[in-house]
Amino acid sequence: MQKRGDLAGQTFAGYELGEAIGHGGMASVYIAHQQSIGRTVAIKVMPSHLTIDPTFIKRFEQEVKVIAALQHPRVLPVYDYGEIDGRPYIVMAYIDGGPLTDRIEAGPMDLDEVERLIGQIAEGLDHAHKRGIIHRDLKPANVLLDSGGNAYLSDFGIAKLGEAGPNLTGSGVIGTPAYMAPEMASAGDVSPLVDIYALGVALYEMLTGKFPFEGDTAVAIMMAHVNAPVPDVGDLRPELPEAVGDVVAMAMAKRPEDRYDSAGELAADLRRALRGDPVEAPSRASMPQDFSTVSVPREEILPDEKAPSRVDTPPRQQPQPNNQREQRRGCMRPPVLIGGGVLAAVLLCGAIALATGIVELPGQEAVPSVSIGDGTSALEIRNQMSVPLCGVFLVGADEDEGIWGENRIAGTQIPAGGTFRVEGIRSGTYNVRADDCSDNLVNAIFNTAIDDSSDRWTLNDASVQIDNVSSQAICEVFISPSASPSRGDNRLGSSELETGSQLTIPLAEGRWDFLAITCEGVRTSSTGAEVDGDVVWTISDQ
Question: Of 85, 126, 137, 534, which residue is the catalytic one?
Answer without folding.
Answer: 137
